[in-house]
Amino acid sequence: MQEKYVLQMKNIEKDYFGNKVLKSVSLSVKPGEIHALLGENGAGKSTLMNILFGMPVIHSTGGFDGEVFIDAKKVDVKSPKEAMKIGIGMVHQEFMLVPGFNLTENIKLNREITKKNLLSKISGNSLNFLDRKKMDKDARKALDTLEIGLDEWAKVAGLPVGYMQFVEIAREIDKSNVKLLVFDEPTAVLTESEADNLMKSMKKIAASGIAILFITHRLDEVIKAADNVTVLRDGELVATRKKEDTNVLDLAELMVGRKIKVTNKLEDDKKNRKDHESILSIKNFRVNMPGEAVKGIELEVKKGEILGIGGLAGQGKVGIANGIMGIYESTGEVRLRGENLKLNNTREALKSGLAFVSEDRRGVGLLLDSSIEENIVVTTMQIKNEFLNRFGFFDQIDSKSIRSHGLKMIKDLDIRCTGPTQLTRRLSGGNQQKVCIARALTLEPDVLFVSEPTRGIDIGAKKLVLDLLVKLNKELGMTIVMTSSELAELRAVCDRIAIISEGKVEGILEPSARDRDFGLMMAGEYRKMYSKEAL
Amino acid sequence: MSNTNHVEVLEKTKESEAISLKMKSFFIDHSVTILFIIICLIGVKISKLPLFFITSELLTRISRNSFLVLSLIIPVLAGMGLNFGITIGAMAGQIAIIAVTHWGITGIQGFLLCGLLSVPIAMIFGYLIGTLLNKTKGQEMITSMIAGFFANGIYQFIFLFAVGSIIPMKDPIMMLSSGIGIRNTVDLSKNVGIKYALDNLKKVPAIKVLLIALVATIIIYSGIRFYKIKNSKKKEKFITGQYLSTMIGCFVGILICSIFMFHEGIPNNLKMITKIKLPIATCLVIAGLCLFNVMIVKTKLGQDFRTVGQDNHIAKISGINVNKIRIIAITLSTLLAAWGQLIFLQNIGTLNTYGSHVQIATFSIAALLIGGASVSRATIGQAILGTILFHTLFIVSPMAGKNLFGDAQIGEFFRAFVAYGVIGLSLGLHAWRKRVGVKSKLE
């Protein structure tokens, strides 16, 4: 018997210039089903979605083989606009919201409800007045479906990241003809509690008959939310499983084909560090980073340790490193090796032996249109005047030493690329991250700040990046301050973990501390409870 | 007891802190405007010009210039910055004037024909500028400025060389004696041109207009509030602080107006003010443009302008044809500038063929910036306020210069550099304001 499907993709094949990226992949989604699409970066997920949405990149590289059916009708989607028309919606990973507009305006972006007026009867629809009342009503309905208590007239600017995601979703479900929603790694920027809310909303949307295709790295979410799972690996369909028939370990194995374990630090290592001198001391430190404001941090970083900074999104953990490096405005006192550090001066910070791997890899972290080797040396060239041939005033780039250093780094950090001259834009997330780390290492810093090192990269690469950090710490004695939203990885790598809540340090824990304590601190309840006990 | 007192005191200090913070941010936000209000007041005082003269001169200049300033608003809305390209719009208006004057159509018919004729010319120019600006996104201001200089070259080529040689035209009054090229100045006065065509349509004493406007404000504002409260679900008080202050302001205004009009005991030099007449037709045209600007924001097109202005990329993703919207915005601005130049020239009365349009953009933009606008935000109120302040300074600076330095030439010089200084200064102040804003948030 033929079952009814919203979407069927049959035997999809695609090659980029002879390089096969999809090999006979099939995918079927029923109405009201949450279907997870799982795979490492480079497994072919994005290509598959690009085909579904008819992105220009597919057609300009010779199209694809195979068939796509929507509601059992064969379709040939030529542009994202056509995809929208036949009822496929996309919730983007990076938000497509206009910050200066309110929620209604964002939800109804370019789909505004209008009413006729005298002038528009003569000159056409573009002079129609907006029907704000109806727009507000629709927006309210969409927000209510998601059970979001936000006011539809609130401005998007200043909303926490988690809510922005929901506004995106509200926009998609407000489209009346939507049959299939694609969530492209929606939880990548969300905290655990926000992600939970998202899962609930997804289930609600699915219950209303809309099918959801859910692209993710987080295995536990797949188990929590999805009905069926399709796993891709290296462009091949590895398996399609029902949720009941699988578990996290099974999926992880299917996806990477190797066990995941992050090197744990030895216990006696930690003991030794207890009495180490402090290398960086931060007092009453404030940073004005939108959405991640830091409001008076007191923190000591000991020499040779890996200090983890954790906490929920929007609480200010990301702001600390950004503030110290002078990327966002900051005030307060920061002492490095007992000397005052000039704030709001990135050059000074870099010169005095700090280095930073930004959480915004593609924005701040990399010169996307420059080669790998240039990316690796550019900061050192600026700060330390290395990799230069000096001819009086006319310094020339020393391409020979850059090349040899680039090759060394590529080898040391195992950056997978076609060569040191490949553009960083073309690299996968994990390899881009490695380039960022390579650049920071080239500075030979005393203290290395790493923010969200594993955001948006797949499990295999995650392990490599984390292992690399541990190795640097052990072998070079480098002090590392690592900021991450993923508690598990902090606990695997760090010596101490500071939890930030509402812009302040809620407490510092050993990685082996109880889950309950971490949970309380993240929620900002820890101090309240324990200060009472202490009294 | 003492405890509650303490709490009260604390709350009060908190409140006063909040107020002082508000005051601070108000002064920072309006620093440009406040600075110029102070300069204007000092200038008025030093120049010792009679109030009558300043007021009447100011009213003339407002009616002459505000249309041009208002034409700048739409591109700002669409995120294209300050449109230095209105120079090109002004050229379109002047081309129409030259043609109509040559044909010998005078008065209001001539003026309306100019308006009609400048539409296709301005639209073609606007489309061309828009296309150029779409190729140079992010550098709209400098591009439109240079495009203005370039267009000026073509304009000069046509009217100095092409007219009479390539383009057949014979007009001994308008053309140079050699038969090639238009004269430096073209007389637009009553019998030959469009001088005062719009202004003299109907003139009403300014004080009467003010009185009527104030009464109308009271009635309309009350009506709107009444209507709004009736329709909104939330319980709102009819009389709010804003409402009350507006009403009081209006009544005080009415009182002053009636004293001027009906009281006999007022000294003669003040009584003169009642004699000032307002070109009501021009004012209505300007009010119409204000209304147009308000209305367009509420349309789908206006929403598209705003979306494009906020974020090009997102607008594109959501299916808005960004390039088309930007071209529409620039074309509208160019067309309005052409009409603005018509209003400007019918008031001046002579067309300075090669000079009238040159400084239009600079002066209009300076006026808008003084009003408190920035490259990303401009309102009608800012445009009007800016026009008033800028031209007050223009009126008083020669006399102020004479009284201060004993030479009117210095004042004359002063008012030339004011225009350019203002643009530089206010752009600088805007940048400073942003920094201070960031810092004060930090604390």
TrEMBL record, chain A:
Pfam families: ABC_tran. InterPro entries: AAA+_ATPase, ABC_carbohydrate_import_ATPase, ABC_transporter-like_ATP-bd, ABC_transporter-like_CS, P-loop_NTPase. Keywords: ATP-binding, Nucleotide-binding. One of its GO terms (molecular function) is ATP hydrolysis activity. Residues 7-259, 279-527 form the ABC transporter domain. PANTHER family: CARBOHYDRATE TRANSPORT ATP-BINDING PROTEIN MG119-RELATED (PTHR43790), GUANOSINE IMPORT ATP-BINDING PROTEIN NUPO (PTHR43790:SF4). This is Monosaccharide ABC transporter ATP-binding protein (CUT2 family).
TrEMBL record, chain B:
The chain crosses the membrane at residues 26-46, 67-98, 110-133, 145-167, 206-224, 244-266, 278-297, 325-345, 357-376, 383-401, 413-432. Its main location: membrane. InterPro entries: ABC_transp_permease. Keywords: Cell membrane, Membrane, Sugar transport, Transmembrane, Transmembrane helix, Transport. GO terms for molecular function: transmembrane transporter activity. It is found in: Cell membrane. The keyword Transmembrane applies. One of its GO terms (cellular component) is plasma membrane. It is a multi-pass membrane protein. PANTHER family: ABC TRANSPORTER PERMEASE PROTEIN YPHD-RELATED-RELATED, SUGAR ABC TRANSPORTER PERMEASE PROTEIN. This is Simple sugar transport system permease protein. The lineage of its organism: Bacteria, Bacillati, Bacillota, Clostridia, Peptostreptococcales.
